[in-house]
Amino acid sequence: MSGKPFYITTAISYVNGVPHLGHAYEAILTDVMARFKRLDGYDVKFLTGTDEHGEKVAKTAEDNGVSPREFADRNAAAFQRMTETLNISNDDFIRTTQERHYKASQALWTRLQENGDIYLGKYEGWYSVREEAYFGEDELREAEDGQKFSPNGTEVKWVEEESYFFKLSAYTDKLLALYEAHPEFIQPESRRNEIISFVKQGLRDLSISRHKDRLQWGIPVPGDDNHVMYVWLDALTNYMTGVGYPDEADAEFQKFWPADYHVIGKDIIRFHCIYWPAFLMAANLPLPKAVFAHGFINVKGEKMSKSVGNVLSPDGLVETYGLDQIRYFLMREIPHGQDGNFSHERAVGRINADLANGIGNLAQRTLSMIYKNCDGKIPEANNYDESDKILLLKMYKYLVSGMRPYAEALMFNQVLMGIWDDISDCDSYIDYNAPWRLKTENPERMKTVLYTVAEVVRCLAIAMQPVTPEGAGRLLDQLKIPATERDFAHICPEYALKPGTAINKPEGVFPRIAEDEEPQVAAG
Ligand code: MSP
After folding, report:
1. Among 80, 76, 77, 26, which residue's Cα sits nearest to residue 53?
2. How far apart are the first and last CA of the chain?
């Protein structure tokens, strides 16, 4: 591929548990963007992976009676499997326990140290193991029994130890200047305001190491065996490891760094929009172009949690609804950057209405009529009337240009609404032209109508590929579209269906799903 480079990443998941619907949503959202960009002619690099060090993983491993390494191996494999189950098109899967990542993290550390941004001191303060994050006293909430909690409701504990610090306080103004000069750096906009007001209060220096007496499961601090790196410094570096850092001359690094988008959840925005650009500024490295924070997915209005027993597993969801179906549901139902809700009723309703009855029915009835009434071959179109011309013009001229601005902002619910408006226009066109009547009244006109609808289905199937790659691919197979003619650039008259092409016997691509089968709950 020789298109413009585009580098996109997901957050890397902690291996203290197995994947759930929240991880699946993030992977799918990022995958849809990666696929969209590839189809739009970009040379895409898509990285995902696992975040394996730190106190949280070490503690969970201990609770399970295994070494952190063994525990990490087991759960990293589960995350890797999830990418396969969900048909995620990542080009690489990074694990922070890999040799290449140790090299990258230690190189970044050394660079920060050489630039005078690291000093040894003593950390005294509150730490949340669940979030692997430090909090100021003023941010905490205290329960009746004296236990203190972070603003996100996780338990914090008092920590006192020798620690290396990063001079984050020196970057307050530089960060504010960054947000000012590049409003697109933090998306969506509401998150940007949240970060700006936090940074405006002034930043404290950041503790970036843990003493070996408290934690050994981490990347050793270069030149000091008594410390391992703070897990977030290690974790954030993954985005550069994935493109060859510390070898800045590496072709991948040259081509793909800085990243175009880091896609993350709203809970980890401080790390990505404050710490990460500050580390990179300190290292004189280019900053990512944008961080997009998506919302959280709740199940039937409740936060997913093991104690409630409502943690949905990607495997169970795919088994119950189908892969493209679950991908479609999540992209269509979760509003841009906001929290979303998963419920069985909504999933069944959406999938049956939009996929089975919408595009599924449109394609099936059109292709079946062609198969039965046109000798199984794409018919010839003659004398287009206004209704045919308008429908085709909408595809060639407005389909991709209409999707693009929404896709650029990761607004895939809007992209899908646009495609489904076209589907319903096409349904109205069929009802208006009634090809089943034309069969006897005007067979030539019937052919033009069927050709027009089949051509619209070709264009819509190309457009649907990022979200429903399998189903869209099967529709294109039925129409005998070569694999090399399925990019957005092929939505044009030059690549229109060729009359006379024999099509495959039409088979339903998006079956209706039963309403009585609820998805399974996650295992671990
Ligand atoms: N390891 C850190 C990220 C380091 S990135 C350099 C982490 N891991 S995580 O496993 O807790 O979360 C991984 C991603 O999944 C995060 O972006 C997080 O926001 C997202 N989600 C976790 N639960 C979620 C939902 N219920 N809904 C949507 N996304 C959620 O944070």
Report:
1. 76
2. 40
Would you state the structure tokens that stand for residue 165, as one six-digit string? Answer: 């610090």
51 lines ligand 1 (CB under 6 A): yes
331 contacts 340 by C-beta, under 8 angstroms? no
Query: Does residue 236's CB lie within 6 angstroms of at least one atom of ligand 1?
Result: yes
Q: If pLDDT is split at 50, 70 and 90, which confidence band does 519 have?
A: low
Q: Is 13 in the pocket of ligand 1 (CB under 6 A)?
A: yes
In the predicted model, what is the mean pLDDT of residues 34-54? 98
* Residue 520, pLDDT above cutoff 70: no
Q: pLDDT tier at 523 (50, 70, 90 boundaries)?
A: very low
Q: How confident is the model at residue 446 (pLDDT cuts 50, 70, 90)?
A: very high
CA distance 483 to 318: 26
d(CA 47, CA 7): 8
Separation between Cα atoms, residue 53 and residue 415, nearest integer Å = 38
CA 358 to CA 351: how far, in whole Å? Answer: 9
- Model pLDDT for residues 227-240, shown as the tens digit of each residue: 999 999 999 999 99
Which protein residue has the closest C-alpha to ligand 1 atom 8?
Answer: 13
Mean pLDDT of the chain: 95
pLDDT tens digit sequence for 175-200: 999 999 999 999 999 999 999 999 99
From CA 63, how far away is CA 58, in angstroms rounded?
Answer: 9
Among 13, 233, 280, residue to substitute to test ligand 1 (most atoms within 8 Å of Cβ): 13
Residue nearest to atom 24 of ligand 1 (CA): 22
Degrees to nearest 5, angle at CA 400 with 5 and 334: 85
Q: What amino acid occupies position 284?
A: N
Our answer on whether the CB atom of 26 is closer than 6 Å to any ligand 1 atom is yes
Q: What is the pTM of this model?
A: 0.96
Residue 95's pLDDT is: 98
Question: Does residue 279 have its Cβ closer than 6 Å to ligand 1?
Answer: no
Whether the CB of 23 sits within 6 Å of ligand 1: yes
DSSP 377: B
Look at residue 30 and give its three-state secondary structure: helix
Q: What is the mean pLDDT of residues 469-496?
A: 98
In SS3 terms, 482-517 reads as CHHHCCHHHCCHHHCCCCCCECCCCCCCCCCCCCCC
- Ligand 1 close to Cβ of residue 82 (< 6 A): no
From the CA of 405, how far away is ligand 1's center (Å)?
26
Cβ distance 42 to 3 under 8 Å? yes
Nearest 5°: phi and psi at 292?
-110, 120
CA of 23 to the centre of ligand 1 (A): 6
Which residues touch 63 (CB under 8 Å, ≥6 apart)? none
